[in-house]
Design a protein that fits this description.
Blueprint: H1 2-8, H2 13-19, E1 24-34, E2 43-53, E3 56-65, H3 74-78, H4 84-96, H5 108-123, E4 128-135, H6 143-152, E5 161-166, E6 172-179
Parallel strand pairs: 3-4, 4-6
Antiparallel strand pairs: 1-2, 2-3, 5-6
Pfam family, one: DUF6946
Protein name: DUF6946 domain-containing protein
InterPro entries: DUF6946 (IPR054024)
Length: about 190
């Protein structure tokens, strides 16, 4: 609910700032589903946005969080005897990110949310694929998991920071962590009053 209320109020400034300067929100879709390599469920972005910032067009997948984790690690998701489909999916996504073999302790959700941004950047012919964690946790729950993922891509990022990685196919991946305003943790809908 925090993210929904925040985005209803307009383009969150903490997310816009991570996209770059002179940011223009062109389109925002909630619960946007993006097909992933292989069979199975699509990646569902809490918010998917087309953005223009720093003179660049971006396709941005936003993962909104409060205190919930990023789901299973790669190792947990694959299990002891992974299916060929799971192996194909993670190998394809890792290849898109320029990784030979993903660290099994990294969180799978961060991989497939980046993959969603890459798929949509290709579809909308955007040179930048962005994945921003929009966290409303005021105590930075799960920031270390995000930082471990960023480090695997060669980035040293903290809260309210973003960085770019050149991907093998020529796209740029913009990765960042935005701290949402704590005011949106309260029920602002007036329900129950």
């Amino acid at each position: 609910m925090a993210a929904a209320q925040c985005w209803e109020a307009g383009f969150p400034p903490e997310v816009a700032a991570l996209c770059g300067d002179q940011t223009e929100l062109q389109l925002a879709l909630v619960e946007h589903k993006v097909p992933m390599p292989g069979k199975g469920f699509p990646s569902q972005c809490d918010v998917f946005a087309l953005v223009h910032a720093d003179g660049r067009d971006m396709a941005v997948a936003v993962e909104a969080k409060v205190a919930e984790p990023f789901g299973p690690t790669i190792g947990e998701w694959l299990g002891e005897t992974p299916s060929l489909n799971k192996l194909e999916r993670i190998d394809t996504i890792a290849g898109w990110l320029g990784l030979d073999a993903p660290d099994p302790t990294l969180r799978y959700q961060l991989f497939h949310r980046c993959a969603a941004a890459i798929v949509e950047a290709r579809r909308f012919r955007r040179p930048v694929a962005g994945m921003i964690v929009h966290s409303f946790s005021q105590s930075f729950h799960w920031l270390p998991d995000f930082q471990a993922f960023a480090a695997a891509l060669g980035l040293d990022l903290g809260a309210a920071e973003a960085g770019d990685v050149a991907l093998p196919d020529g796209l740029v991946l913009r990765l960042g962590w935005a701290k949402g305003d704590g005011i949106f943790l309260a029920d602002l809908t007036g329900a129950g009053t």
